[in-house]
């Protein structure tokens, strides 16, 4: 049972837009920045979005993040087959010493 | 170019010990906190432990507290995870991850991971 809640899977057709939700509480998302990680099949996670809505250098602007209250979202526009991956949200939790992660969402591009 | 390379994984019996290493390069090692994050087969990510640049601050997840010890060697640009009293539920790929310069809990670089299997 993960502290942050994500849908297990989402799917959408190529060139469309998809959003992945991440729900938490006042002790994590509500009071701390949210990060998103992309994990391609068989690979290590990669930082995709940090501090709620900022893109690291080299990340496509097809990816965007947002946050409202105790929930956050990752949006991917212009879906491509290479976007098929697991996506994880994460945030510090005030009651813990390390970040907490969502359970991950598997994106399938139909 | 930032690089993190883990090693030391393998098969170990329940109750046994293992020491993981992570060799870092491409950045000023002492300026960054380092972390270990694990992923059980087919499961999500779980933060395990962190150590600040000068080893002043060390933290553990409750699931490993008292059994795992994190350390770092600035001269070797390496971070370690000593794992004792291993259990089947510790089976996972263990990733070394750099925390961003501000220590915000953002993991901006990850290693490729090393697999630890605890089984009799």
Uncertain segments of chain A:
none
Percent of residues in β-strands of chain A: 35-45%
Sheet/helix structural class of chain B: mainly beta
Write down the Rg of chain B: 13 Å
Q: Most extensive interface: pair and counts?
A: A-B, 25 and 24 residues
Q: What coarse outline of chain B follows from CA principal-axis ratios?
A: globular
The span between the termini of chain A is 28 Å
The sequence of SSEs of chain B as H and E is EEEEEEEEEEE
Strand tally of chain B: 11
Give the biggest beta sheet of chain B.
7 strands, mixed
How much helix, percentage-wise, in residues of chain B? Answer: under 10%
User: Sheet with the most strands of chain A?
Assistant: 6 strands, mixed
Name its key features.
heterodimer, A: 110 residues, mainly beta, 6-stranded mixed sheet, 3-stranded antiparallel sheet, globular, B: 120 residues, 7-stranded mixed sheet, 0% helix
């Amino acid at each position: 049972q993960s502290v942050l809640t994500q849908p297990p899977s989402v799917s959408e057709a190529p060139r469309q837009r998809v959003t992945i939700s991440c729900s938490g509480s006042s002790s994590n998302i509500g009071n701390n920045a949210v990060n998103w990680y992309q994990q391609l099949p068989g690979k290590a996670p990669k930082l995709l979005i940090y501090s709620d809505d900022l893109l690291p250098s080299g990340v496509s602007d097809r990816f965007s993040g947002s946050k409202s209250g105790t929930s956050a979202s990752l949006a991917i526009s212009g879906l491509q087959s290479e976007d098929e991956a697991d996506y994880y949200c994460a945030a510090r939790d005030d009651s813990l010493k390390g970040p907490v992660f969502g359970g991950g969402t598997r994106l399938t591009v139909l | 170019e930032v690089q993190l390379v883990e090693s030391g994984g393998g098969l170990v019996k329940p109750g046994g010990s293992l020491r993981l290493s992570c060799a870092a390069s491409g950045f000023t090692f002492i300026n960054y906190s380092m972390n270990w994050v694990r992923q059980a087969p087919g499961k999500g990510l779980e933060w395990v432990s962190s150590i600040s640049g000068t080893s002043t601050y060390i933290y553990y997840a409750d699931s490993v507290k008292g059994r795992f010890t994190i350390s770092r060697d600035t001269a070797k640009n390496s971070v370690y995870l000593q794992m004792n009293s291993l259990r089947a539920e510790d089976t996972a790929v263990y990733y070394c991850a750099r925390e961003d310069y501000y220590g915000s809990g953002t993991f901006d670089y990850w290693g490729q991971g090393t697999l630890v299997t605890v089984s009799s």
